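Entry:
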Amino acid sequence: MTGTTGLAPKPAKWLLWTTLVALSAWYLFDNVIYAFVRDRSDETVARTLWRFAHLFAAVPLLLIAPLQFSRRVRQHWPRWHRWAGRIYLVGAMIAAVLAVYLGVTIKYEGSRIPLALFGGVWFAFSVAAWLCARRRDFVAHQRFMIRGYLLAMAFVWVRIMYDVQNEMFPFIRNEDVRDTTREWLSFVVPLLVAETWLSWWPAVRRTLRTTLPGA
């Protein structure tokens, strides 16, 4: 990823990445440990194996991605950047396919469609990023990587929403409805944020600059 979005000043970027890395580390130490110690009496052996395969493929991505977006790393260690990018995309594709399987087989009926859709979109973003890199369209490549990374963080977002669900959803009393709502929001909101940052707001700014008198 040798392009750059140039959509945020450097202090804002540092704050953004610091926050995302901190959230990722919190997810690793809190939720991955829980994945190993949780009760699995109601889960088949096959599903348990698929779940751990998904974790092993997805968790490293949360820590690799911030380095991939670093301009300094790209400029000073381009070979490492390319190999880490390949590892990231392969891991993302594997994790996305496994997420689809885990989504359609989860016992919570309301979570099946959002989780399967999440996995499909994540896989599509990863393939698009790879194709753009192959064609050396690094600006588009970086944008698809950003979209994919924010989507990969869905497991962090859904955990945060779980911890504050009483404050977020006081109007939803049914626990199953809350679960379904969290599943949808965990990847729809990141998609909206990514598209606003990468596409919609820049387009509005360009339009305003060309149409407002005296702009």
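The chain has one domain: 10-211.
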